[in-house]
C-alpha cells in the first residue's frame, strides 16, 4: 500500500496548527484529495533521478507525492509561515525523505538561483500568476526539461492552444517559444480547500529548442505583444507602432513571408521570429 498522503482532515488540522487562513491574493487553494495528488504525480512522468521544482508547496500534500516519485524536491514558497512549516511536515510524514527536500522562501516570479538545477516543474500554481511563473522559470532554468502544472482550466486551454484556435494568444505563443504544451486533463473544484469557483486544468510540457533566428527572445516577444494588443486588426495595422509605420510593418511582414492582411492569431512562434528578424535586418 502506498504511504499515506494528506486527506481533508489532515489538511485542516495542519492549517489550524500553523494558524493560517488561506488567502485569495496568494491563490491559496489546497488540494485535499490523495487521488488528485497521485493523478498529478503520475501525469508528470517523473524519472527516479529527477530534481523537481515545485512552486507553492502550501501545506505540502503534493510535495509528499513528489518525494515518493523523484530523487529531490526544491520547493519555492512565498508565504513564510507555509515555507517554515514544510520541513516539519515532511519530517513527520516522510521522515526517510526529509533530506531530499530544499525549501526556498521566495517569489517564483523573481527566483534566479536554486540549490539544485531542476529537471522538472510540477506544481499546483497560484492562479493569478501562473503564466508569468511558468515563462519565468522556463527562461531562468534551462535544466527544466519537462513539467506538469495545474492552472485555471481556461488558462490550461490557452497555454496548449494551437495557432488559429479561439483560445490562441500571447500565453500560447510565448509558451511555444520554450516548449510544446498539451492539455492533460480537467480537475473539479471539490478537491480543493477552499473550493475555487472554477475548474482547473492540467498542462504537460516538454522543452524544445526555440525557432532558429538572429532576433533575440525579447525582440520576438515584443512582436507577439504588439500583434495581440490589437487582436482584431490586420498585422499590418497592429504592427505599425512596433515597426515605426504601416509601410515598415508591411515590409517586415512581406520579408518574413507573412500575409500583411492576416491576423496574429494564425501565426505560429516561428513566424513571429521571422517577422522580428526581418525588421531587425531592415533596420541594420
Ligand atoms: N501545492 C499546494 C497544494 O496543491 O495544495 C498549494 C497550491 S496553492 C494553489 C498555491 C501556493 O503558491 C500557495 O501555497 C501560495 O502561498 C503559493 N504562492 C503564491 N504566490 C507565489 C509566488 N509568487 N511564488 C511562490 N509561491 C507562491
Helix content: 40-55%
Say how many strands there are.
9
Low-confidence stretches: none
Category from helices, strands and their pairing: alpha/beta
Across the major sheet, the strand order is: 4-3-2-5-6-9-7
By DSSP (H or I, 4+ residues per run), the number of helices equals 12
Fold blueprint:
Blueprint: H1 8-18, E1 30-31, H2 34-43, E2 51-55, H3 61-69, E3 72-77, H4 80-93, E4 101-105, E5 120-124, H5 130-140, E6 146-152, H6 153-160, H7 170-178, E7 179-187, E8 192-193, E9 200-207, H8 217-229, H9 235-238, H10 240-243, H11 246-255, H12 269-283
Parallel strand pairs: 2-3, 2-5, 3-4, 5-6
Antiparallel strand pairs: 1-8, 6-9, 7-9
This protein binds S-adenosylmethionine.
Residues 26-31, 55-59, 61-62, 76-79, 82, 107-109, 124, 126, 129 line the site of S-adenosylmethionine.
Model description:
- It is a single chain.
- With 284 residues, the chain is an alpha/beta fold.
- Helix content is 42%, strand content 17%.
- The chain is built from 12 helices and 9 strands.
- It has helices at 8-18, 34-43, 61-69, 80-93, 130-140, 153-160, 170-178, 217-229, 235-238, 240-243, 246-255, 269-283, and strands spanning 30-31, 51-55, 72-77, 101-105, 120-124, 146-152, 179-187, 192-193, 200-207.
- The strands form 2 sheets. The chain has a 7-stranded mixed β-sheet with strand order 4-3-2-5-6-9-7, sandwiched between helices.
- α2 (34-43) crosses α3 (61-69) and α7 (170-178) packs antiparallel against α8 (217-229).
- The longest helix is centred in the last third of the chain and has 15 residues, at 269-283.
- The chain is elongated.
- The mean pLDDT is 95.
- S-adenosylmethionine binds at residues 26-31, 55-59, 61-62, 76-79, 82, 107-109, 124, 126, 129.
